[in-house]
Amino acid sequence: MSARAVNLTILVLVTVEFVSGFAGFLVGTPDGRWVFWVHAVGGLTLALLVPWKTAIALRSFARRRWGAWAALPILLSLLFLGSLVSGILWSTAGLPRIAIPLYGEITGLTMHVILSLAILMPLVLHVVLRWFPPRKDDFLARRQALRALAGAFAGAIIWQTSEGLSALASLSGADRRFTGSREEGSFTGNAHPVTNWFLDKT
Q1: Using CA of residue 111, residue 40, residue 56, residue 132, what is the dihedral sign?
Q2: Given this model, what pLDDT does residue 187 score?
Q3: What is the mean pLDDT of the chain?
Q4: Which tens digits make up the pLDDT trace of 11-55?
């Protein structure tokens, strides 16, 4: 896959992830669970592209050599990987609570949201600095369409496989709600969860 195709695909998928992630805050009933399905498949499809993007980045570093310019892509890469890994771990094995100085503890899902939001500004700067106008063939060519379908299909297969393995291994991710939330503080009086998701209702 060419560097151009990889970069455009990642940009499209990241946009899908931001939109579906935001939409997830507005969905609280099971009939909207498809939003989270899109988010899961998009995230895992992005994970499949990491090796290609890594090769592109390494070639860029080798060609331009290290310098101040590298700070932005390195920061963006770390935030991206943090968001990706935290999302995958939360949906499978789960993540422990994370202590934030002067604030308290947050859940792994909250950390995933924070890392994802932190990507936004570095991503916009990176796109502006490295932007190249897309061509019609980048999206409508038969080869590109087949690659997009294959990537989405692979992401869906991995998603369903991870769901099945989580249930088989009795991982905490198998018991989460379709929104990603986990039961916490039920039947414990006033021991309410620290984090309550907007519109997350039964």
Answers
A1: negative
A2: 65
A3: 85
A4: 999 999 999 999 988 887 888 899 999 999 999 999 999 999 999
Average pLDDT, stretch 98-106? 85
Closest among 87, 15, 76, 20 to 47, alpha carbons compared: 87
Would residue 195 count as lying in a domain? no
- Domain of residue 21 covers 3-175
3-class DSSP state for residue 185? coil
Is residue 163 in some structural domain?
A: yes
Query: From residue 75, how far is each of 81, 118, 125 by CA, in Å?
Result: 10, 10, 12
Is residue 194 within 8 Å of 104, Cβ to Cβ? Answer: yes
Whether the Cβ atoms of residue 3 and residue 25 lie closer than 8 Å to each other: no
Question: For the chain, what is the domain count?
Answer: 1
Burial class of residue 164, CB neighbours in 10 A (0-12, 13-18, 19+):
exposed
Mean pLDDT in residue range 137-163: 83
Q: Looking at the domain assignment, is residue 201 inside a domain? A: no
Tokens linked to 57: 């980045």
